[in-house]
Amino acid sequence: MSQHQLFGCHVSIAGGIDKSIARAEKLGLGAMQIFSKNASRWQAPPLDPQVVEAFKTARTHASLGYIAVHDSYLINLASPEQQSWQRSVDAFSDELERCQALGIEDLVVHPGAHLESGESAGLKQIISAIGQARDRVGNEVRILLETTAGQGTNLGWRFEHLAEIVAGFPKGNLAVCFDSCHVFAAGYDLRDRDAVKATLAEFDRQIGLDKLALFHLNDSKKGCGSRVDRHQLIGQGEIGKSGFRALVCDPRLTAIPKILETPGGPDHRDDLLSLKLLRNMSEEEAET
Q1: Pairing of strands 219-220, 212-217
Q2: What is the secondary structure of 174-220 as a DSSP string?
Q3: How far is C-alpha 99 from the geometric centre of its chain's CA atoms?
Q4: What is the DSSP letter of 47?
C-alpha cells in the first residue's frame, strides 16, 4: 500500500522557489507544500521568469508526485469590510496566477473569518470572492478549501460551510483540504477506526469524498471540540496513533496526498520521524 501513498511536508522556498524541489528530493518526499511568496506580507515581487523555468525544469527531473501551494495567511475572503475584502481578492487572484505560472495544480486556502457579520454573510462573501478571482484568472488551478478549527469567527469548521461554498461552483474546480488537527478541534472525532469511519461518512454526506483532494496530517494539542488550532507531532497529541493509522490505512484515501504541517525540527528531523511512522503504519496494514 505505502508505495502508492504520497507523503510529504511543508518545504521552505528560501533562496528562490526553485530551490524547494531539491530540498524535497533530499528529504525523499513524495509530496510537498510550499508558499509561492512570503505568507505574512501582502505584496510580493512578480515571479522571475528564470526562476519559473528553473522550477519547472527541476520538477520534471524530480520524483515528486504532488505539489500544492498554500496561500497567504493575511487573505480573508469572508471579510465584511469592503476594502479588506477587495485587497484579499486581489491577493488571492495573484496567488492563483503564481500557481498557474509555475504549473502547480492546487492552491490551499483558508475560507476566512466573518468578523461577527454572521456565517451566512461570510459564506456569501467567500463565494463572491472566488467568483471574482475565477473571472480574472480562469479555472485552471484547483482551489482547495481547508477545513478549520473554528477559532474566533473562522468559517470552514463545519463540513456544511465547505459544502455550501463548493455548491456555489458546480464547474468551479473546487475541492477540500482535510486538516486532521482542525477537523478534530472542530468537534469531529478521529481517535480510532470507528471515529474516523463516522467522520468520513459525515464528510461524504455533506460534501462527497470525491471532493477530498489533500490531507494535512497534524495531531492536535487540544481536545476534540476545543475549537483551538494547535498542531502536534503525529501520535503525540489528542488524536493519537490509532487515529492516524485509520486514516492512512483506509483504502478510499490511499491515493490522496498527505502532507505534514507539524513542527519540523532541525533539518526536518521531526518531519522525517513522523513520515517514517506514517509509512510504517501503511506498510503494517498492507501486510496484515
Answers
A1: unpaired
A2: EEEEEEHHHHHHTT---SSHHHHHHHHHHHHHHT-GGGEEEEEE-EE
A3: 15
A4: P
Q: Which of 262, 207, 211 is nearest to 7 (CA)?
A: 262
pLDDT tens per residue across span 104-151: 999 999 999 999 999 999 999 999 999 999 999 999 999 999 999 999
Q: What is the pTM of this model?
A: 0.96
Q: Which strand (E) or helix (H) includes residue 64?
A: none
pLDDT tens digits for 52-81? 999 999 999 999 999 999 999 999 999 999
Q: Distance between CA 33 and CA 281 in Å, rounded?
A: 22
Query: What is the total residue count of the chain?
Result: 288
> In sequence order, which residues have a C-beta less than 8 Å from that of residue 33 and are 6 or more positions away?
8, 9, 10, 11, 67, 68, 69, 70, 108, 259, 261
247-to-29, 142, 176 alpha-carbon distances in Å: 19, 23, 16
Tell me which fold the domain 2-287 belongs to: TIM Barrel (3.20.20)
Residue spans of the domains in the chain: they are 2-287
Listing DSSP states for 72-136 in one string gives: -TT--TT-SSHHHHHHHHHHHHHHHHHHHHHT--EEEE---B-TTS-HHHHHHHHHHHHHHHHHH
What whole-number percentage of the chain has pLDDT above 70?
A: 98
